[in-house]
Amino acid sequence: MDSLDIGQDESVRVLYVDADRSYAEVVQTNLSRLDSDIEVICTDTADTALERISSQSVDCVVTAASLDTDTGRGLIAAVRERNEFLPTILLSKDHETGVDIEATASGLSEHVALRPERESFEFLATRIEALVGAARDRRRNSVPTDRLKRTLERTTDAIYAVNTAWEIEYINQKMADRIGRDPDDVIGAVLWEEFPTIVGTELEARYRTAMETGEPASFEQYLDSPFDYWVEVRAFPDDDGLTVFSREITAEREREQELRRSKAILENVHDIVFVLDSSLDVQYANPSAARARGGPVEMRGMNILDIVGDRIPDDDLERFREAVDETLSGIDGRSDGGPAGLYDFDIQMSFDSSFGGRTFDVRLTPLCEADEKRVLVVGRDVTEREAAQRQLERERDALQAVQKVMGDAGLSTDERLTRLLEIGCQTTGLDIGIISDIDGDDYVVRAVHPAGGGISVGDEFNLQSTYCEAVVATDDVCSFVDAIEAGKETHPAYQEFELQAYIGVPLAVDGERYGTLNFSSLETRETPFGELERAFVELLGELVSTELARERSRTELEQTNQRLESLIEAAPMAILEVDEHGDVLLWNHGAEEMFGWSREAVIGQFNPLVPDEKTAEFEAHRRQTLAGERIRGKEVKRQTKHGEELDLLLSTAAIGSPDGDTDHIIAVLEDITPQKRIERSLRELQRTAQRLTVAESTEEVGEIVVEAAVDVLGLKVTTIWEYDTEEDALVPLNETRAARELYGTTPTLTAGESLAWEAFEAGDIRIYDDVRTHEGRYNEDTEMRSEIVVPLGRHGLLLTGSTASREFTDRDTDLFRILAASAEAAMVRAKREAELREQNERLDKFADVVAHDLRNPLTVAVGFLDVATETGDEQYFDRVRDAHERIENLIDDLLTLSRGERPIDDSTEVDIELLARQSWEYVDTDDATLSIAESLPAVRGDAGRLKQLFENLFRNAIEHGDVDVNVTIEALADGDGFAVEDDGDGIPPENREEVLEHGVSYSSNGTGFGLSIVAAIAREHGWTLTVGESTTGGARFEFRPKQSAFDDAC
């Protein structure tokens, strides 16, 4: 129900909404007690509050912040949607904190924090009265505005208003309907931004002038797209902006334009037009009437008989008068100014005009205007009609002849062109007809009529010497009937051939200029070429162009067919055509090569590629193709004449048969058998790679690789070698049965004795078409011819071969390389896993040794420390110190061992004598001595690691020998390496291997790690270490570096 009624008394009805009934009663009681004019009604939910507002008169809504099923904010938003004037107050109680006033600001009139004090309720009552009073004032002020809006909405004009910033403040429904917009969508928008198409127009200029000057403006304006209509605009400026009244006048302007067009037509039409009243006085005469009569210009008011009576034969004049009378008597009395009778009268009259004797067709039409009967008289000059009729008959006969020539399928292009020229000559009355082929300035006669007239097919002229130069220059019809009158007496064509009359049109073939069609005569022509004759020559030009285009197309088609046939025959794919029954119509050379059947054997027979078991598939393909669904690259299998199964890609398309039906099928079959074999090989190689990933040893890798070489790649003579770092050789790992049969015993390959080793050292794949032509092969009498050698990094070599030359294709090579890559990765992984297993075993043993050896000295240190503490005897502290030194030595050795064996990446040439003497200085040698023989070999290695090697050897000799032990370093007898020996107690033969293991020591002073460190460093350098007995019975350690390392150092 509407609230805030202007006419109601000063009492105020407040709707208070609160789920707390007790608190609501307190608010109701206090407000009623403070102001008797305030009536409070209470409700507890938002829904019931909205129902009360709809059914009762309410002046203000007060709501608690929190309700049972809603919030005060939600209620306020719902109220504001229903009534824009109704005040709303959000009440927060004294115990409520954190009410988000900003979040509830939409539609809220005021927020009041209510406390139990009287002053708080007095403030609430005051705010209610103030808000209700203000709302009633706004409602009263809105009544005149609403009344004005209703008035503006009723007007027939489209109205809108803008403020001084050109923002649209109002738009009535009429204007909204005209522009097809909702008023709410445009109000507030800037006029120029909302309707950009009027920017820069006269409309914008007039609006801005009216706004700037304050003067009203009235004008008519056409609005372009998207509006496209005429309007009458009245713009009224004031201090607040501009109000525009717009009335659409499109229909009025169109009527005016129609009247102007009608008048223009009457003023310029060649027909004679009169309007006569019942007395035969002229009410209107157009300029053509005056020109035909020869004056006067103004005939209005004159009697028609006085104007034409002496120019028309008596019989025609009498028939005219009778026609006028009968026309007037038939008028039915209408007064709309239009034709008033059911029938017009048509008569033909002769008239002696100012241009001579003419014949007119005259039509009389009854008119009725303002209750006055009138007659519209229109006369058309038809003097040339008979001549035109005769010309039409000639044109008709010519067209029939042209139709006959163009429809005669038995004519060749040359015959058809000659016949068309003959018809052109007959129709134009000219003697010579020529079709020219023009290229630049070269003019060549393509066809001519009549033959034997001095110009022949193939004759060549310069274009500038022919009348056709004007046709080419203008690309249009050119003609004249008298060469001298046309100023052609100096033209070469006139000088040489005396051609008097000429008409020519340009010819174009496939959109490009070809030449001209022209007719000429040695005699002048009596009459100019009429429009029909020019149109007929142009028609002949179109037909000639069409025939020339057909000839070109036939020639190109023949050439294309020849190329296509050659292409089909040369194509490596099988191409065949079958009819609707499946019989073969085309069988190219590729099909013969692919399937084995000759063309003669299959043409006219049912497709041999469709055995009984493939009939259903063939039918499915046929139906699909003839339904317009081409088959593109479908994989199928077909058998050759000899039973070999091929993998093929099938593509089909429907083509037309000679009878015009699309019921033949062209099929293209591409042999993809090699690709499919490769795919199968790749899948098998993938499975082989998966098997290799779980191989636990290089031996197992070798078995898998040679098996795949035979079963997957068909490479029956295949061998795999593994590189042995200690031997510096490629050791056979596995081979195929055929390889064993061929080689007998597969050899171990070393440096410099085979092509395979060269490939291994270079790290490059080698392919030999015939190994017999290459120096350096392992076996000079080998039966092998072709070989593929693929290094497996530094881990080995994979080789396959054949006893035939040039046996291996690129596909074989690529697949073999893939197998080799998988083998290399598997060998790396297998070796790494073996090393890890060995390392783990060493670490386990190492951990046991560490736990045992560190525990002993630690126990000693702890025990003597306790004794020293109890007794105070310093000698026990010396024992503790000795135990600590023992622990320190163990830790140093353990740190060295913990770093593990590391590859020597950057080796240098090392002087053993110098390095040994430096190492001796770092060892507590007491009374021990060092002797170094002459001519020690130099080696390549890591100087830092070798220094550790000597330090541990020296320390081992001192710890296990007497204090005056002598250590000697000398070259081995064969010069291949060096030895370190002492004159101590030596190592028993049965212990000489285990002393190199971690934690093994036969001395109470040793850590048990020194010699294991020596062995690790030797292995890092690729040396062999042998433990033996010196000449004095002591220990002897012999080191033999790799030959290559020793040679390089030497």
Automatic annotation (TrEMBL):
<dbReference type="InterPro" id="IPR035965">
    <property type="entry name" value="PAS-like_dom_sf"/>
</dbReference>
<dbReference type="Pfam" id="PF01590">
    <property type="entry name" value="GAF"/>
</dbReference>
<dbReference type="InterPro" id="IPR000014">
    <property type="entry name" value="PAS"/>
</dbReference>
<dbReference type="InterPro" id="IPR000700">
    <property type="entry name" value="PAS-assoc_C"/>
</dbReference>
<dbReference type="InterPro" id="IPR011006">
    <property type="entry name" value="CheY-like_superfamily"/>
</dbReference>
<dbReference type="Pfam" id="PF08448">
    <property type="entry name" value="PAS_4"/>
</dbReference>
<dbReference type="InterPro" id="IPR001789">
    <property type="entry name" value="Sig_transdc_resp-reg_receiver"/>
</dbReference>
<keyword id="KW-0808">Transferase</keyword>
<keyword id="KW-0418">Kinase</keyword>
<dbReference type="Pfam" id="PF00989">
    <property type="entry name" value="PAS"/>
</dbReference>
<feature type="domain" description="PAC">
    <location>
        <begin position="343"/>
        <end position="394"/>
    </location>
</feature>
<dbReference type="InterPro" id="IPR029016">
    <property type="entry name" value="GAF-like_dom_sf"/>
</dbReference>
<protein>
    <recommendedName>
        <fullName>histidine kinase</fullName>
        <ecNumber>2.7.13.3</ecNumber>
    </recommendedName>
</protein>
<dbReference type="InterPro" id="IPR003594">
    <property type="entry name" value="HATPase_dom"/>
</dbReference>
<dbReference type="InterPro" id="IPR003661">
    <property type="entry name" value="HisK_dim/P_dom"/>
</dbReference>
<feature type="domain" description="PAC">
    <location>
        <begin position="632"/>
        <end position="684"/>
    </location>
</feature>
<dbReference type="InterPro" id="IPR005467">
    <property type="entry name" value="His_kinase_dom"/>
</dbReference>
<dbReference type="GO" id="GO:0000155">
    <property type="term" value="F:phosphorelay sensor kinase activity"/>
</dbReference>
<dbReference type="InterPro" id="IPR013767">
    <property type="entry name" value="PAS_fold"/>
</dbReference>
<dbReference type="InterPro" id="IPR050736">
    <property type="entry name" value="Sensor_HK_Regulatory"/>
</dbReference>
<dbReference type="InterPro" id="IPR036097">
    <property type="entry name" value="HisK_dim/P_sf"/>
</dbReference>
<dbReference type="InterPro" id="IPR036890">
    <property type="entry name" value="HATPase_C_sf"/>
</dbReference>
<dbReference type="InterPro" id="IPR013656">
    <property type="entry name" value="PAS_4"/>
</dbReference>
<keyword id="KW-0902">Two-component regulatory system</keyword>
<dbReference type="GO" id="GO:0006355">
    <property type="term" value="P:regulation of DNA-templated transcription"/>
</dbReference>
<feature type="domain" description="PAS">
    <location>
        <begin position="144"/>
        <end position="188"/>
    </location>
</feature>
<feature type="domain" description="PAS">
    <location>
        <begin position="560"/>
        <end position="629"/>
    </location>
</feature>
<dbReference type="Pfam" id="PF00512">
    <property type="entry name" value="HisKA"/>
</dbReference>
<dbReference type="Pfam" id="PF13185">
    <property type="entry name" value="GAF_2"/>
</dbReference>
<feature type="domain" description="Response regulatory">
    <location>
        <begin position="13"/>
        <end position="129"/>
    </location>
</feature>
<feature type="domain" description="Histidine kinase">
    <location>
        <begin position="849"/>
        <end position="1045"/>
    </location>
</feature>
<dbReference type="Pfam" id="PF02518">
    <property type="entry name" value="HATPase_c"/>
</dbReference>
<feature type="domain" description="PAS">
    <location>
        <begin position="258"/>
        <end position="331"/>
    </location>
</feature>
<dbReference type="InterPro" id="IPR003018">
    <property type="entry name" value="GAF"/>
</dbReference>
